[in-house]
């Protein structure tokens, strides 16, 4: 009989095409004014694509096997230099055998239209495939294959899909005799087929509670991630309908590097020359704002596959646009939780084109990807499905921008992930305004040693112009002084908490009309509006006024103000804030342009707060010696080194958090983490709840109901679902939970829809879209007009 790889379900929507068309037409007809041009275009294009759908030819199992092996082969033709012959052979073997188990009769009754469905439950095909492998035969076919190599191959095949193993040896043998042996013989065309449930004893890990687990050392795990990750990469690529796992490699032509050199007329800056000359090395460089570090990092990547990581989505968007537009490099991808719509800009309007680009970005197929670190570093949790990240970084150049901006938890994940990548011979560049000694300490502790495993250079003294003069005050803000400055200068005020920023905005609003507010407690639509407004304000030389913000502007927005008023914070955040003022060093600094107010706002107390109190105190005390003085880039590095002195920090929560999380990653076992939500929450260290203010809910109730109607309709394309969920996200905001959500006053614990984890809140929300002014969401005031209680 003919054996198939999967059911012919690539166009399931055909069955429900009328339902899909009707619900989307209703959305367009009734909510067109609420959809932007890009969203409308996507939906209309998708409706057009529904008219042209045809049932595609069903792939046979043999064709699928051939396709994935060819995909792997084409990949190794380009990236052969990154892998040993044994590694290539193990991956190719995994591609050849991973779906053998599909040649069982029960599976074929599901995917083969010529067979009647049976009620019999099946054993997952990955398990059957792995138990069909002969260790003796594998070792004969792959030179140098060891017992560990076979275990890695076996485990990659066994768990290439994340399936629960609740089977005994007897279950396997009974199933083999009844539903698999005969058909495997027929598929392979031979009588002598192998099947051994004892293979399970050689698995690296198991989710079967009756199995005895073995201890897996780090080198073995890293090699396993390579095999499993590449198997998943090629399998997912082919299953998505693509022939090649990598697009438009720039290794040979190095087009982006050439364009950057042309842009600088081949007069590269010192940092850029250094990075270009050390493209074969791991590097850690201190590079102040204005030193051309983005281009330096791209020159270091040298046309090889690369990932440029940043702390926040808005900064990722800016770098992506810079590479795509300034350097006309179209083979760059953007990847974060809100990046879908970017793949429909600049296309000819076809839904299929944008859909393809987004899917290929998620498969890490582009030569260069700009992303947030959480898109890559989850492999440190040893969770099923995360191996593709480590495997891809094995043959890529990884750029980490502004490592000092991350929380201790993320720093630990980055350091541990880099130690694993070093074992896999991946390459990294850390390019940062400051590099605290405590980071070097932990890197050394985890086998990342300066001058052995990476080259370190400090370019802080290459900036010829001093940009900042500081003044330190042990008091609250001087609102009259800020308001007066706002009449003739661009004034940035940074507060440590949202509540404080709202109070400062209220005080300043009583003194001047030219004051605006930006923080995280606006719905996303309004926050995007404010981010654009503050950047336009920064770029307009004629405008003066005041912007009150929180730390969200520290490392995300490319803004430049004349003077900075800021609450004191820890040294790393303080230097980031300074980078938003006099960035080019062209403004007068006869008088202090960075005014720092020490009031202990946001300091940790009883486990609550933003800033470690010990580091805050050190930051204040060590800053005193620069009070009233010019604060050079070299001074900043020395200041950071003193504040983050290892011996002085060992008893702080900051140091202990990094230490504790690094130890946790080292002791983690496979399957300790399996939930994506648990990984996300642990990685970011923040739990949150998504809310929609009642006023916004009432204004958009029909839109919400129309979108949920689409989401409730079966077989609607997944990317249409994503774009509509993103539309809902535009009118929501995330509230961080520092305690049990049941204690969050003013928030309805029931979701607005069973499919959506969105909650209504009667807390007061204040914003005027016409003027861009308003307090955002208050945590202490209620909106009586829209109160749902």
TrEMBL record:
The keyword Magnesium does not apply. It comes from the Bacteria. InterPro entries: Cas3-like_dom, CRISPR-assoc_Cas3_HD, CRISPR-assoc_Cas3_HD_sf, DEAD/DEAH_box_helicase_dom, DEAD_box_RNA_helicase, Helicase_ATP-bd, Helicase_C-like, Helicase_Cas3_CRISPR-ass_core. Residues 274-453 form the Helicase ATP-binding domain. The keyword Nucleotide-binding applies. Keywords: Antiviral defense, ATP-binding, Helicase, Hydrolase, Metal-binding, Nuclease, Nucleotide-binding. SMART domains: DEXDc, HELICc. Residues 54-237 form the HD Cas3-type domain. It holds the Pfam family DEAD. In the central section; belongs to the CRISPR-associated helicase Cas3 family. Belongs to the DEAD box helicase family. NCBIfam families: cas3_core, cas3_HD. PANTHER family: ATP-DEPENDENT RNA HELICASE RHLE-RELATED (PTHR47959), CRISPR-ASSOCIATED NUCLEASE_HELICASE CAS3-RELATED (PTHR47959:SF16). This is CRISPR-associated helicase Cas3. It comes from Coprococcus ammoniilyticus. The lineage of its organism: Bacteria, Bacillati, Bacillota, Clostridia, Lachnospirales.
